[in-house]
Amino acid sequence: MSGVFLPVATLWWRECVRFSRDRTRALSSIATALLFWVLIGFGLAGSFAPAGMPGEVGAVEYLYPGTVLFVVLLAAIVGTFSLIEDRRAGFLQGVIVAPVPRTSIVLGKVLGGTTMAVAEGAVLLPLAPLVGVPLGLPGLLIGIVALLSMAFALTSLGFILAWRMESIHGFHGIVNLLLMPMWFLSGALFPVEGAAGGLQLVMRLNPVAYGLAAFRQALYGGSGAGWVGPGTAWAVTVAFALALFAAAVAFARR
């Protein structure tokens, strides 16, 4: 068993150490999300009336869960830049030729990225009561699990994209092409219920929308996303995470 779990723990810890030495990356992503949240939230404060939400929910409060998720998604994807750096430094080649299961390699890298992404998102959680979002202990714990699931899924996606990439610049372009539309169409900026028919269909096909719905429902005690029930939201989120991890393992074994 040590031949399986020791590589996982080693790679996970290596990602944690790397993260602790690169605090600028974490601070910049958090600052970007906060600036976006404040500018958009207060800019829409006088004209925001999301369908399917209580009338007293304003723009700043509505955008809060999506802002937390944005930090997590960005950190999860950006964290897989290290895979390209490891290839350039020769570390990845050394790991690949070692007598270590490819599943352990993928799991160690993905868990490392997941941990760092959720750590960055958790920095914003104490702000919830300040904008009117209820934050009890059960909701907080369930919300963190939702963030863990989404971080695991998006880190696995980043692993797939970075596995054969040689250029960080090329990887960054692909990330922007995928990540931003997934976040925009997740219900982070406007509710699924209020979107036009064709756009609403696209949003309902977006797995990230279900992860955000699960996070909202955790914060609001089961409400907050009337377009989908908690059971469906969690089922899609977990299935999304497991499917992407399985795909990442398949890519690593090729």
Fold and architecture overview:
With 254 residues, this protein is mainly α. It has 11 helices and no strands. Helix 2 (23-43) runs antiparallel to helix 3 (59-79), helix 6 packs across helix 11 and helix 7 packs antiparallel against helix 10. The longest helix has 26 residues, at 137-162. The radius of gyration is 18 Å and the shape is globular.
Key traits:
254 residues; mainly alpha; 11 helices; globular
Mean pLDDT over the full residue set: 81
SS field, number of helical segments? 11
Q: Largest beta sheet, briefly?
A: none
- Strand pairing plus helix content: what structural class? mainly alpha
Low-confidence runs of at least 5 consecutive residues:
none
Radius of gyration: 18 Å
Question: What is the terminal separation in angstroms?
Answer: 24 Å
Helix content: over 70%
Instruction: Please count the beta strands (DSSP E, at least 2 residues each).
Output: 0
Task: Show the helix and strand layout.
Layout: H1 2-20, H2 23-43, H3 59-79, H4 81-89, H5 91-97, H6 102-122, H7 137-162, H8 168-184, H9 197-204, H10 207-219, H11 230-253
Helix pairs in contact: 1-6, 2-3, 3-6, 3-7, 3-8, 6-7, 6-11, 7-10, 7-11, 10-11
Question: What's a quick, concise take on this entry?
Answer:
The chain has 254 residues and is mostly helical. It is built from 11 helices and no strands.
